[in-house]
Structures are given as C-alpha cells and as structure tokens.
Design goal:
The chain is mostly helical and about 60 residues long. The chain is built from 2 helices and no strands. Helix 1 packs antiparallel against helix 2.
C-alpha cells in the first residue's frame, strides 16, 4: 500500500474550491464535491499507477 500526501498548496486549493462552491452554489454540493475529490485522491493509495506523476515533479 502507498501513502498519499497532499501539499499545503493542494489542501488550500481544495478548501478554496469548497468555500467558493458553498458561497456560489450550495453547501450540500460543496460537501459532495469535497467527498468525491478526496475519495479519488486517496484511491491512489490502492491504485497509484492509475495516474502518472505530474511532469513538474519529475
């Protein structure tokens, strides 16, 4: 099993998106989006090769 680490910048981007979605759409939609994004991110712990490493990190 692998461990997924989110950078401070990624965490901030996610928080900012949730805040924007809550203010401009709905809190419920923001929560659903957050849960879906986090599930996808952390699914990389089980299937790390399903997404390539970003070029800026190579």
């Amino acid at each position: 099993m692998f461990r997924v680490l989110l950078s401070d910048a990624a965490q901030s981007d996610i928080r900012n998106n949730v805040t924007w979605w809550s203010e401009n759409r709905s809190r419920e939609e923001a929560e659903r989006w957050y849960i879906a994004v986090m599930e996808k991110i952390y699914s990389l712990e089980q299937l790390p090769l399903r997404c390539p490493i970003a070029l800026e990190y190579c």
